[in-house]
Amino acid sequence: MSNERSGLEEICASFNVLPWHDSKLVSMRVHPSDDELSHSLDIDLRMLTNPKPGAYEWTDATLTLNDCRIIKLDLDLLGKQLAGGDIASGSCDTESALKKEIETGQLLDFDLPQADDPLGEYLHFRILLIHPGGRIDVFARAFELETSANG
User: Which residue from 24, 51, 52, 94 has the highest number of Cβ atoms inside 10 Å of its Cβ?
Assistant: First the structure.
């Protein structure tokens, strides 16, 4: 379990160092994995590569959150549009208040087979948009980030 915990923390650490602030949310897609037993969420982004004022630069990127269990969206698409899709922050946590709330509420009423610790192997990925754009909360096992070579 300690090695598993360490692996989850490493995934979070690599997500948390990404340049989220002032990157831009472009679009999202939920799709089944190749085996059709799980789902992934693709989030198209414009990742900030140069944060120097007056010389900002972005590159196209796709963030894929793999093996998702729960996706919660609270988006105001007009707010997103008016704020240019700008992201305030992004984070990944092994534990969070929302995770505990879901485990003690929503998942207690889940009447199909699931593990004793249903979100134990899942990470809480969070992307907050500049107000009033909203937020994206995803409980997934891993992520991948693919960037465009051309920016």
Answer: 24
